[in-house]
Fold these 4 entries.
Entry 1:
Amino acid sequence: MHDYRSHTCADLKIEDVGNNVRLSGWVHRIRDHGGVLFVDLRDHYGVTQVLCDPDSPVFSQVENVRSEWCIRIDGEVKARDPDLINSKISTGAIEVFIRDIEVLGASAELPLIVFGDQEYPEETRLRYRYLDLRREVMQQNMKLRADVIASIRRGMWDIGFREYQTPIITASSPEGARDFLVPSRLHEGKFYALPQAPQQFKQLIMVSGFDKYFQIAPCFRDEDPRADRSPTDFYQLDLEMSFVTQQDVFNTISPVIADIFKEFGGGKVVDEPENWEVISYRDAAVWYGTDKPDLRNPIKMQDVSQHFRNSGFAIFSNILEKDGTEIRAIPAPGGGSRKFCDRMNSFAQKEGLPGMGYIFWRESDGNLEAAGPLAKNIGPERTEAIRDQLGLGIGDAAFFLGGTPKTFERVAGKARDVIGDELKLVDTNRFAFAWIVDFPIFEKDDETGKIDFEHNPFSMPQGGLDALNGDPLSVLGYQYDLACNGSELVSGAIRNHQPELMFKAFEIAGYGEDEVRKRFGGMVNAFQFGAPPHGGCAAGIDRIVMLLADQENIREIIMFPMNQRAEDLMMGAPSEPTSDQLMELNLRTISSS
């Protein structure tokens, strides 16, 4: 017999009754029923109930084991009494009577309990991550992650892509976040960088004549943490293709993403890719207040400025006298009560705004009546025009925010989400996808008036050089994101592969040709030697798994994540280098105190 096991803790069935077996695993739970000891023995695959009574030659040894001890047992498989069968586990029809036991690894007192669903502070969970990972939900999350990555790889190979690896140590290349720098021992005073993404390398692969590339790529960015973003590193499905249009990229990646969500989405509805909405960046901002809208929520905001110009509501009327302002309405079907309206007004105040105006419609003496301070100020004709535009009726409400869109759009988007959740309008049994397109390439700083890149500077401008010779703020790029249930899953672009166009785009943003060559010399030089039109995208593995696992925090689906302060409490990173290490690198540290 094998030194440690003849079967896993998920293998044994009723057909094994009478056999002598060997199992190894962890003591999940111990129960003493009138002198008979029942032990739930757990391994990666499942749980088997093993038991021992005073007639067993090792009864005294079994009495000593505690939770999370790692043990090996030999014993005989027996059938459970019919009324004691546990249908919730694969081995629920049998149990194993212990004849011999060996302690493979005793456990000290546990800082967190593996059995059950007890909540522990995140600091404790991350410090003892190896124990936290033993819990069933974490085991399932990590298996899901591995299975998703394996399925993605199969899917990409099936459609003609090959996986190529790009460097982990490279030159610093601004991608919109801070680099992690690595000092060079051989080149004093110089630094490598960990890649924020394989962006330049995958474009160079296209220049090298490899028509299709993909990689499950690690990316490193020194970012402030959020619930849906790691502060140090993440993984993405990175791909690039030559001789493609924007629609070609959509047609390639959409079925891969759809198949993943169909396979691992737990039966939730996944629309076919040809039915995914395509929404302009501008429309997404107006309708949803974000470029990653949750389309499970049917609420669509609208511009209602025309109904408030020169109206009796002075606040909104005065706002509209300034350039670049508007009044936006958030419809709230079923939200037509003063109590709900007051609650949403309080929400806006907590978000830093003075409040939200509102109108709600109710029945009065058999007639439809508009209620609320706004309705009284603007009068029945304007109120009725608003109701008609928004398609609302008795029992519904609408909320209003005004100003320049940048001042209220974020809160409007959050309010839309809250309204949808509270009024139970969100279809939680669905993964709703939408391509967001037509991103502006440039933006203008309101204080300095300087033009800079708003989005990916390597995107091909729509209209080419002619567009770049016009108003920079009107230039749109062939750039696109895929949103799902309020998260950005995919981001990509058709690349600007023509040096003259690249130099012109950077010139508009205040970067001369010398600066561009200094920062991106490898790619710019390559583009002078017959670069093909190309484009691609990257899909966030962590966010995909987070949605599939129905988790709200990305650390729940990463095996060894950092905490909110970008610290590894388990391994003690970041740590101070030794004096010898600093001397070898010709570095010294300076205290900020």
Note: The mean pLDDT is 94.
Entry 2:
Amino acid sequence: MLSDIEIAQQAKLLPIKDVAAQLGITGDELEFYGKYKAKLSDELSARLQDKPDGKLVLVTAINPTPAGEGKTTTTAGLGQAMAKIGKKAIIALREPSLGPVFGIKGGAAGGGYAQVLPMEDINLHFTGDMHAITSANNLCCAMLDNHIQQGNSLGIDPRRILIKRCLDMNDRALRNIVVGLGGKVNGVPREDHFIITVASEVMAILCLATDVDDLKRRLGNILVAYNYSGEPVYARDLQADGAMTALLKDAIKPNLVQTLEGTPAVMHGGPFANIAHGCNSVRATKLALKLADYCITEAGFGSDLGAEKFLDIKCRCAGLTPSAIVLVATCRALKYNGGVPKTEVSSENLEALKKGIANLGVHIENMRKYGVPVVVAINKFGTDTEAELKYIENYCIENGADFALSQVFGKGGEGGVELAQKVVEACEKPSDFSPIYDLELSVKEKIEAIASKIYGAARVSYTTAAEKAISEVQKLGADKLPVCIAKTQYSLSDNPALLGAPKDFEITVRNVSLSNGAGFTVVYTGDIMTMPGLPKAPAAHNIDVVDGKITGLF
């Protein structure tokens, strides 16, 4: 059996100009990054602005195992399957972070015969967007520390600096550090912190900005610190917004690549869903809707995280209306939710499946609350048994849910034809999309709406730090923004050990921070961290270059 990278390396890629031609894009509207990658120009966006939108399909999932359950694979395979049934489709995905690539979960280019290519490029440096975001964020941090060193005319209180440096790598040693040591010439000593790039506000801003002017405005609105009088200090006060925009001038343009079968794919932006808003860029999604009849996009982790944020933050911000939601489920993840250790999810266990399938039921019901048709994609793994698959199918029938068996990992687009047909049918059904909460609610009311309606929590408690932070958000007049809840992906609760469909649990809000430029309030629950660490045996151990070829990359 070939590995993902071996399948990818044996594929014959189309020149990116030929992929673009399928969508009516000319060579002059591409900015080439080699033969198989290109950025889509501002001129293309301008030309298509009056063209009608296609149908928007969101791919999400149940709560996964730590290894992930094939949401990107399903998205890529569904795009390929759409072509098999004669539909003009494009997929819109997030860019991978180097943290998972070298850590445990893997990249974000799909797998098997439903991949986005060139896989190695995408999972490593791609077109440099992640590096540009890292540089823009850290430039602002450097300018802030320099301002304090050079007289501190804004009166910035070093004890109340909010912006953190970032790095697109799992590195727990940088979570809490001290900068400015070594004497006067090296700056003012203070406590500082690193977060992973995909959790940074600059990443969120890039993904929510509509154009370069909006990008600059949002960057200027980043709340970086407070001064000694307790007044807010923004990035624009440091005069950092212009230079940050210059670093992101090209990064804001979406990237065009292709699937294994030549289906066009737009990849842009990459915020995690457990610690950020989990969706690719507004620009990429809106452009994809102009380029094809169906835009198939995904949101990170389970529907309690990525889909909730896609529907309550991204769609509201960008004025998007999804036509259908695909909910990916696997025997493996349902058995994991039934209490089976991740090392044993490949073995048949109907009892665990019956116990864990309640998790699927909660996700189906939650997505229906948004008024959008739902199709369950049962993503088949080679270790699944007929009895297990039949049990999931019967459960969907009993719960009135449309479903299809997806075999895109092993069969490519051909293995997703039934799913594609079900999705096309769902897109023609009545849809009455509405977010789960009203923006006029208070910060706490919004948090509690998500906690009760989506997570199923009985109550929400707040630490003293969270109460104080919410009060600060209200003082700044930012309490009418959406909320972005940082929470474990492994459970509907904030406790990763509470699997399945937990009831009568409490969500603990540990802290709150304002992402003023992005336009939402981040709510931290449980023990979620914004700088992950590497596992005991990271994937990096297996990655190498042999005879000029990358090996071990999935």
Note: The radius of gyration is 23 Å.
Entry 3:
Amino acid sequence: MGAPAFHVERRTGERRGQRRDVPPEESWFGAFTASPDSQTGATLPPGGPGPLDQDAPANRLLERPEKPGAGDATTLERLYRIFLSARALLAAALIATLAAASLFGVPPAPPVVVGSVLYLLLAVGMRLALRRLTPASRVAPGRLNATAWLASIGADIVCFSLLHLLSRASSFNYAALLVLPVMMAGVLTPRLQALATAAGITLLLLGAAWLAVLQGGEATSLMTQAGLAGSGLFVITVLAGELAGRLAREELTAKGSMELARQQAQLNRLVIEEMQDGVLVVDRRGCVRAANPAARHLLAPRAAHGPAPFQLRSVAAWNALVTMVERAFVEGVWPEAGRDVVLDFGAANTRTLRVRVRFTRRRGVAETEEFCVLLLEDVRSLQARMRQEKLAAMGRVSAGIAHEIRNPLAAIAQANALMAEDATTPGQRQLTQLVSDNVERLKRIVDDVMEITPGEVHEAMTIDVRAQLAADCADWLQGVAAAEPDRAAAPSLLRLELPAVPLGAAFDAQHLRRVLINLLDNARRHVGLAPGAVQVRLSAFDDTRVELCVASDGAPIAAEVERYLFEPFFSTRSRGTGLGLYICRELCERYGASIDYRQRPAGQTHRNEFIVLMRQRPWPDIGVAAAGDSGR
């Protein structure tokens, strides 16, 4: 016997909270079809890693929400399975009843036994056929087609009607069994079809009563019983249909709510993953259930840590963070501004994080914290942002002052040049040269201030960083040799390590040259004549970033100086402007790059290292190289 199938009927234009009037030709379960307005059509990637253990499944905040597949059971499918199971149980109970009657000396008629056995085989076969169907073919929100209706409701009407007609002379009343097909029709078929089914069964009951009257029965009693039974079938049909419609509307509302929740979860995940601050969800055992990329990057000394879940106690450098989490669970409160924790990765590599804690409470359990959310931020980034905000106003003021200084400075330079023409004595020439030197110094300061003044937006071009560094380092070495003859006689001061293939990045060629020259000049002032005292290394940091490292073998920078390295007008030299590294940072941020200082472990030769991370871009073999070279 063929498996039952459903015709798909989609209802459009429905909204949550609106009144839905079901047309006569629609199934009460037509509302189970998901509205197109509630479907995003987006295919979400698979979720994160599995649970950490069986006893405590990972409650991953950032896990991608799972979308129900086509094989998930709907209420229509579940009710249909229940009806088929009920038919099988009813057939078994019918056989058991006949067997019990035979034991008590009331043997049923052979046609009744044969009909009951055939109905049992039909009901069990239908239920087993539905079980063997695949999930995709087992459910189709809509209404029963003709084949499914005949195989289930139609077969019940025929079997129960025959049993009712064949057992009129016995004490068994099979008319009550007709309630099952009437209820199935009320739930699984359109209203008109369900009422037609009830009307047909009512006519059968009236016909059977009329036959009984013709055989000598009491007409009033028999016809009244048949009429009352038919009225009850109509009431059951209407009630079953209304209940089915209400279930349909509730499931549609639930599906809409789930879709909205799924979309909200996806938006939350995207927002949290793009946050600059680190987000950790930690339970009482120190297990990290969720971690965004920023948090995983802050917890690792170099590359990002693996995805959640993972144990905080598994890394010794995180012991201070574990202690802070335990303290947070014990106290149950946390300062609004947060607290600082130092992660010691060894080899003089430490990182200070500002930690803010927020708690989540379990429902029904007062004053019990189940999870805590840690908001992590690098203290250096926090301090840099605060300094940036403080210096923003000062930068605008400095730019205005520098612009006003240019005019009198030009007048001083011109007057000094006229005086130098009339200088005759060595003392006069010395004074005019002193004025000229200081005018040039002031010009450089003004130019530096104007360079970092917010103005026109510079669009990042794709350059071949490898070729750019090779040319700039060669020019720098020539300048060093011309300015310092002792350097020219010494072995090569600079050791350059470049990749074998071109490496593209988003930057401006002239600005990258200025950043590199500033870093090389700073390194040159603190190194000796040893070969390779300054190292420049270029490599791909990951799939999205390019790393430029400038290391030197000079004395390590003191901690009290390191914190002010990238601040303007801070210099350890008496004649330094203090704008070199500040300009480097401003130029890097202009093109989405970053610059930082790192002190290598004590056992290494080149302990001072400046790292520039640029956005990587694909570099073709031909066609783009000329554009990069023309920018120099």
Note: The longest strand covers residues 350-361.
Entry 4:
Amino acid sequence: MKIGIVYLATGAYNSFWKDFYHTCEQYFCVDAEKGYELFTDSPENMKNILSANVHIRQIEDLGWIVNTSYKSEYIFSIRKELEAYDYVFYINSNFLFTAPIYADEILPKASDSYLTALSFDHYLNVDVRNYPYDRNPDCLAFIHTGAGKRYYQGGFYGGRTKEMLLLSEWCKAAIAQDFNKKIIARFHDESYINRYLIDKNPKVLNDEYALQHIWPYHGPYKAVIRNKEEVLGSQTLGQLKDVYTDTSLSFLLDEHLCFRPGGIVNLYGGLGNQMFGYAFCLYMQKQDAKRRWWIDAYACMKPHIHNGYELSKVFTDIDTTLEIGEENRIKVAQVQDNHKATIKEHHLSKVQSFTLSDKPLTIYTGCWQCYPYIEACADELRHQFQFNEQRLNEKSKQLLDVIRNRCSVSVHIRRGDYTKKNNEWLYGGICTIDYYQAAMQRLESILPEKPIYLFFSDDPAWVKEHFNIPDCEIIDWNKKEESWQDLCLMAACRHHIIANSSFSWWGAWLGQHEGTLTIAPDVWYNTTHTPDLLPSEWIRIPIPPSSELLQRLCNDLILRSSYLDSLGLQQGKMGAVLFFFHYARHTGNTLYENYAEELFDEVYNDVNKGVSYGFINGLCGIGWAVEYLVKHNFIEGDTDDALEEIDRQVMVYAPTRLTDYSFANGLEGIVCYVLSRLLSPRASKASLPFDERYRKELYLACKNIPKEEQTTYIRSLIDLVEKGKCIYSFDKVIEQLFELSEDVFNMKGMTWETGIKMMKRVN
């Protein structure tokens, strides 16, 4: 009697082969002749077992789910060779035999339909309606609820050669049909085996022949199933199973049904912002090459968003395969939260460090306007962001010839939406007439010849009124869907004066010729710094704060500040106090200083009325602000005396019991305040604030945080205790406080933080 054993091993599973072969030879069907049909992607690694009864066939590693689903394909592919055996069994690579097994124990008879299958005994205590059969009626492995008698495992089955080939042929055909529809059965080949056996009566092997640590069995055994997680890792294996059984993730399978994790960059805004998002997608392709990447332009397609999605309409060589498409977009919306990660941009135009996600799907949300992202894929972008000049209208074509034959300077003036509502606070008072005049003077002081200025603007009437200069052209004919032609013409110019706009940023970047000069404002938003937005070689014009905007902000805060419910920094009276002290110094007007002092008295008188300990809107932030004002000579006084009550209230909260470690509302915010107090100037013999017990407990709370998770102030406190000194900057603290108020998509302009940021431009 001769028994054929089909064995499949790819990738990490190859490591199981040696032990499997030796134990199978020693214990499995000891009274029969055995032959091994081994399918592997690494034949060279299997040659440590050189035996006449091992026949090695090379296959491609197509990924776990495809490999396991192709068992029947592989078996049927060698049907002629298998006819040399009386019986054929498929056995999983991680089986390990431990005691003799005789042929009559496992070989089926006519009453068994000449088939043998493995079914764990604990299923006998499970209602058949709860068996893990496939319940998708569109799948050929589908089994109706209530049908079936046993649940069979796909890791150990076989029978007489004829019957085994019939089973394999049916499974092969069914799987192929479902694969063509991108349908994956719940438990892959195992589901099809169960469907085939639904009307059969196979010989059943139980736990004795396949001891597995996760099932409740304590009797004698002759084989064990080794834990795959020892080789692949639990996270990897679990994720693979998830992505192949969750139909919403089917778009992550290629035409061969191999899984590849995905990444999506959401696009926002008009053409310039779309270009930044597209560039970031190319950048992430380089950072995380294992993923397939898409851009999702859904947010750009709303009627009020400029001219809709424009990239593939404007540029001739854009990679349209990156566009996700409506069908896949619907699937993305259905993906469960545990299968996807959403990564938001923390700070406008500041390079962000990414910890690559291990989730099947990662979605990136932000504007991503950073020059280093662009520079990392500059060659690809310059190749793909090509204009089809044949599509230019006649006036633009004529102007293009002038631009290329003159010392041309593009001047972009953005008004329109920049003058409306909150946008005025974000962008207003930056690219003023003074800015453009300074830029032109700077340019003309460098250039050897008189330039021709090409003005591009969404408000050409305003430009005509304020820039009545000789030898210039105001481009006022490219409207709506033709506005991209302005960008094409900008890029053709020799030199550039840009606005704080992504549109003219790209006009300048694409228009880099030999000797090109680009002039930009050194301020992009009133509300935040943009350290990584402009290339270093671009000339920056300093932008003073707008007196008009600051005065309007001051008037608004005067009206609102006395009625604020919160006493704290971010949304309360103490933030207004900081603004008015700064504004008094900025304007030299003591009336604002007097008002700041009145507000400060209101805060101080009410600070005992149930205020939380947090930094951004609680006691720690209020106390820190007092130290800040003294440090910067806005007020005078003994902070030990003034803050004694706040210190006492903060000590009520045991630091070692805190689970929130954040700066805004947790341990780091407390530490930041405590540091400001401990480092406050005082007589050498004066006692330190906070009692010794509390200081020790705070130190222990900081030390208990893993070193790699310790933030700036946590490390500073540890250094102060252990080394007697540390790095601490009030200006850095207030910058961190500013960042907490900065939301990439919901930036509020009329705030005290905006006012202080604007005033700090001249400090």
Note: The first strand starts at residue 2 and ends at 9.
